[in-house]
Design a protein that fits this description.
P-loop_NTPase, alpha/beta, 38% helix, 5-stranded antiparallel beta sheet, 21 strands, Mitochondrial_chaperone_BCS1, elongated, single chain
Length: 457
């Protein structure tokens, strides 16, 4: 076949794919050609080298598994956030002990980690009652509540300590489905109601423990105010003053007067001072916080902290205040000295950092030993003498123990008047307890109160 016009034979061929060939060899001059050859060499190495091919496969498999694991973790976290809800209760929160008590009573509970809680009570006759309660300890627990399963995890920190009481810091975490989140509120309300019912109709006594207040023993049955017999008008006068104080908070606030009230009950031992305070607390539905100023390691700062952090609806009781300070000096009657200073006591009662909305009762057998500074209004606003039994008190107490014995009552009052010595209400009560159902024998034993300083009940 004839060659095209103007064409020259330069030994160039064209393959089927259109790639320029020089004597049957692919041209390498262009970039595309170089990359193509490198790709062919790499593919050849991958196909002809089994070790390289196997390593690449494992690498691809590992990468795929890692990506799958990461995806599953992310998906599970997303699912957890969408379907699961947690509630954390810290040990410093008041509801912590409420919840543990509620959980210990819950019937549908699976617990393999238990702790023991011991209740110890010594009775007036010397006998002791001890009760052991097994409560959920640190670890995981399951409960079923209203058809829902709840995981409860109680954790105790080995490094963190609650500075308020020195005990290890603890948390309780409740976990359940998001749809059942409303059950948390119901559980806490049930726990609160159970705790409040336990103390209903009773007076809780608190004592200081380090920088905090702790319950002392079991809650006591409220003492009825009529059961304490004081001389005419004393009980009514104090009660009216307390009610007037409690009902006039706004009056104090409007006039810039610190809203607190201090009472001093003074008189001989066994006259009913502490008994009246306990009965008053029951009448007001208040608790009692007893603070011993002679306690070892009690400092001004700790005293101020305790008085500013009392439990709600509580009366502060400072008994035998003369035993802590004789004038401005510590008496040391108990063999040691606290770190509380007289000025620290005055500042806690009526200083810049003193507490508000508090009712403080102080008792003493020797008011003459008290410094005039503590008697100042604002520290002691109401003081009253509670002495030995008067004829009025003797009569009322006899009729309380022996109802209907009016004639014998007159004989008993006359016998006490003719005894030639004063007696305390504690002595009278001791005599009546010894003769529970025998008023005649009580009359015969009147003179024994003259030789015995006080009956122990």
């Amino acid at each position: 076949m004839d060659k095209p016009p103007n064409s020259q034979d330069q030994g160039i061929n064209v393959d089927v794919g259109g790639t320029p060939m020089v004597d049957g060899v692919e041209a390498l001059g262009s970039d595309a050609g170089g990359k193509g050859q490198l790709r062919q060499l790499f593919d050849s190495a991958m196909q002809n080298n089994p070790y390289f091919a196997a390593g690449g496969g494992l690498m691809l498999l590992g990468t795929g598994l890692a990506l799958a694991k990461s995806g599953m973790v992310r998906a599970s976290r997303l699912l957890y956030r969408q379907m699961i809800i947690d509630l954390e209760i810290q040990s410093r929160d008041k509801s912590y002990s409420w919840f543990l008590s509620w959980m210990a009573r819950h019937p549908q509970r699976i617990s393999k980690h238990l702790s023991v809680r011991t209740s110890y009570l010594q009775h007036d006759n010397g006998s002791v009652s001890t009760k052991f309660s097994l409560v959920p300890g640190p670890g995981n627990h399951w409960i079923r509540y209203k058809g829902a399963f709840i995981l409860i995890k109680r954790e105790r920190s080995a490094k963190m300590v609650d500075l308020a009481n020195g005990s290890p810091f603890e948390t309780v975490t409740l976990t359940t489905l998001y749809r059942d989140r409303h059950l948390f509120t119901e559980i806490l309300n049930e726990a609160k109601d159970i705790a409040l019912k336990t103390n209903a109709g009773k007076t809780v006594i608190y004592t200081s423990f380090g920088p905090e207040w702790r319950k002392f023993g079991q809650p006591k049955a409220k003492r009825l105010l009529p059961s304490v017999i004081l001389d005419k008008g004393i009980k009514e006068g104090i009660l009216d003053d307390v009610h007037d104080f409690m009902n006039n908070g706004k009056w104090y606030s409007d006039r810039g007067i610190p809203y607190r009230r201090g009472y001093l009950l003074y008189g001989p031992p066994g006259s009913g001072k502490t008994s009246f305070i306990q009965a008053l607390a029951g009448e007001l539905d208040y608790n009692i916080c007893i603070l011993n100023l002679s306690e070892n390691n009690l400092t001004d700062d700790r005293l101020n902290h305790l008085m500013n952090n009392m439990p709600e609806r509580s009366i502060l009781l400072l008994e035998d205040i003369d035993a802590a300070f004789n004038k401005r000096d510590q008496t040391g009657e108990q063999g040691f000295h606290s770190a509380v200073t007289f000025s620290g006591l005055l500042n806690a009662l009526d200083g810049v950092t003193s507490s508000e909305e508090t009712i403080t009762f102080m008792t003493t057998n020797h008011p003459e030993k008290l410094d005039k500074a503590i008697m100042r209004p604002g520290r002691i606003d109401y003081k009253v003498f509670i002495g030995n039994a008067t004829s009025y008190q003797v009569e009322k107490m006899f009729m309380k123990f022996y109802p209907g014995e009016t004639k014998l009552c007159r004989e008993f009052v006359a016998a006490v008047d003719n005894m030639g010595a004063t007696v305390s209400t504690a002595q009278l009560q001791g005599l009546f307890v010894m003769n529970k159902d025998d008023p005649m024998n009580a009359i015969k034993m009147v003179t024994t109160m003259k030789t015995n300083e006080e009956f122990i009940i």
